[in-house]
Amino acid sequence: MALKITVIGTGYLGATHAAAMAELGFEVLGLDVVPEKIAMLTEGRVPMYEPGLEELLRRHTAGIEGATGRLRFTTSYEEAGEFGDIHFICVNTPQKHGEYACDMSYVNSAVESLAPHLRRPALVVGKSTVPVGSADLLAARLAELAPVGADAELAWNPEFLREGFAVQDTLHPDRIVVGVAGDRAEKLLREVYQTPIAEGSPFVVTDFPTAELVKVAANSFLATKISFINAMAEVCEAAGGDVVKLAEAIGYDERIGKKFLRAGIGFGGGCLPKDIRAFMARAGELGADQALTFLREVDSINMRRRGHMVELAREAVGGAFLGKRVAVLGATFKPDSDDVRDSPALNVAGQIQLQGAQVTVFDPKGMENARALFPTLAYAATAAEAAEGAHAVLHLTEWREFRELDPASLGEVVAERRILDGRNALDPDVWRDAGWTYRALGRPMA
Ligand SMILES: NC(=O)c1ccc[n+]([C@@H]2O[C@H](COP(=O)([O-])OP(=O)(O)OC[C@H]3O[C@@H](n4cnc5c(N)ncnc54)[C@H](O)[C@@H]3O)[C@@H](O)[C@H]2O)c1
Q1: What is the pTM of this model?
Q2: Quick one: pLDDT at residue 2?
Q3: How far is the CA of 423 from the centre of ligand 1 (A)?
Q4: Which residues line ligand 1 (CB under 6 A)?
Q5: Is 290 exposed, middle or buried (0-12, 13-18, 19+ CB in 10 A)?
Q6: Which residue's CA is the closest to the ligand 1 atom numbered 19?
C-alpha cells in the first residue's frame, strides 16, 4: 500500500514539502498550529509568496475543482498520528532571544504532541535545521512517549531548498541527505524519494550528527563566500578597485566559481544568520568553538554592510538625513520571495528613517510582511511612486522588476537623480547615461 505522509509545520518549508509530496503521488496531510494558515491552505491559497507553489497546491488539495485530492490539512495531532506512516517535522527553529543558540521549543513541542498518537510503526523525519545532537535526544524522547515504543523511529533529512526556487528544489533536489539509525528508515526514505532518485538526485546516507551538520556546514560555507566578497568590496573601496570586476575575474577559476560572489548589503532571511549563530553556540557547547571563530567574523562583515549602506546614503544626500526623502526599492531579504525575516533592505530603511529621513519603500511581493514588521515606514504602490520627490533612490533587493526600470522615466519624478545600488545588480552605464549619479558598494565613484 502507498505510504501516507504527514507534514508538521506548514510554513515556507512545510507547505512546499506537503504539496511536493502530493505531486510525487503520496497521500498527504499537512498540520499546523495556526488555524488561519490551515484554513487558507485548505482553500488552495498559499500564506506566502513562492513562485509555482499555489498552482502545485491547487493541483492536489482536496475540495478544489479538478484537484487530485491527495492533499489535506488539519490542526489535529490525533488525526496526523492515525493517518501517517511517515511524519515530516518542518517547524521553525529560530534564534533564541538574546542568545546565539537555536530555540528548539517548536521542534520539541511538535515531537511531544505527535508521539502520544503513534500507535503503529511510524517514521518521524526531521527536516528543520537543528543543532547537532538534537536527533539523538529526540529519538529517545519519541520512543519514550509513543505507545508503539521503539517502533516510532526517527530520521534526519535536512532541507536545502532556496526560497524563490522552493518548488523546483523540492521536486528536483540537487542532493538528498538522510541521517538514519537503521535499515528500515533508509528503505522508507528511498521509497519517499524514489522519483528524484530515479532522476539522478544523489542520495547520501549517513548518521544523525553528520546529517545535522551537513545543513549548517553548507550554510556556513555560503555565508562565508558572501562575506568574503563583501570584505573584498571594503578593500576595493579603500584602494580604488572595482569589486565587480574582481569577482568576475576570480570567478573564472573553477575552484572558486562565479556564484555567490556578488558584493552588496549582505545576507539575511530566516536561515543563514540564525544558522551560523546557532552553529557557533553549539560548537561552544561541544568545546569546539575555536573551529568556528571565523564565523563570528563572517557575521560581523555581514552586519557591517548594512551600516555602510546607510553611510553611503547619508553621504549621497549631503551629509545629513534630516528633511531628505529616500526611496527604498526592495524589502524582502532576496527577490522572488515575500520573506522579510532579518532583511538587510528593511534594516537599512529602518536605520535611515530613525536618523531623520522620510523613507518610502516599495517591494513587488513583500509589502504586507514589511508593513507588519516596520509599520512606521511609508509604503508606495509602485517603484515610481516610492521615488517621487526622492533625494536618493536605494536599490536594496535585486528584483528583476528593478533591473528593468527605465532610469529616464524614473528620473522625471525624483528630486535628485541619485541611485545607490546595494546589490551591484544594475547597469551603471545605463543609469549614468540617463543623468543619474550611480554609486555601488565596492566600486569606484564614476
Ligand atoms: N525557509 C527556507 O528557505 C528553509 C530552507 C531550508 C531549511 N529551513 C528550515 O526549515 C525550518 C522551517 O522554516 P520555515 O522557513 O518554513 O519556517 P516558518 O516559520 O515559515 O514555518 C514554520 C511553521 O511551523 C508551524 N509550527 C510551529 N510550531 C508548531 C508545532 N508545534 N506544531 C505544528 N506546527 C508548528 C508555524 O506555525 C509555521 O507555520 C527551520 O528550521 C528552517 O531553518 C528553511
Answers
A1: 0.96
A2: 85
A3: 27
A4: 8-14, 31-34, 37, 90-93, 106, 109-110, 113, 128-129, 159, 161, 163, 270-271
A5: exposed
A6: 92
List the CATH number of the domain containing 197. Answer: 3.40.50.720
How many residues are there in the chain? Answer: 446
Ligand 1 atom at minimum distance from 110 CA = 31
Express each pLDDT in 280-325 by its tens digit: 999 999 999 999 999 999 999 999 999 999 999 999 999 999 999 9
- Which tens digits make up the pLDDT trace of 36-67? 999 999 999 999 999 999 999 999 999 999 99
- 256 C-alpha vs ligand 1 centroid, how far in Å? 32
- Number of domains the chain is built from: 2
User: Please, which contacts does 185-192 make with residues 24 or more away whose CB atoms are closer than 8 Å?
Assistant: 185/123, 185/153, 185/154, 185/155, 188/3, 188/85, 188/86, 188/123, 188/155, 189/123, 189/125, 189/155, 189/157, 191/3, 192/3, 192/5, 192/21, 192/24, 192/26, 192/86
| Range of the structural domain that residue 109 is part of | 4-206
Closest Cα to atom 28, ligand 1: which residue? Answer: 106
Of 155, 188, 206, the last residue of a domain is: 206
Using CA positions, which residue lies closest to atom 43 of ligand 1? 129
Under 8 Å between Cβ of 419 and 395:
yes
CA gap 332, 364 in Å, rounded: 9
CA distance 298 to 216: 14
How many angstroms separate the alpha carbon of residue 13 from the centre of ligand 1? 6
- Please tell me the distance between residue 15's alpha carbon and the centre of ligand 1 in angstroms: 9
271 is catalytic: yes
Is 46 in contact with 23 (CB distance < 8 Å)? no
b/e 13-47 (16+ beta carbons within 10 angstroms → b): bbbbbbbbbbbbebbbbbbbbeeebbebbbebebb
* 401 and 310 within one domain: yes
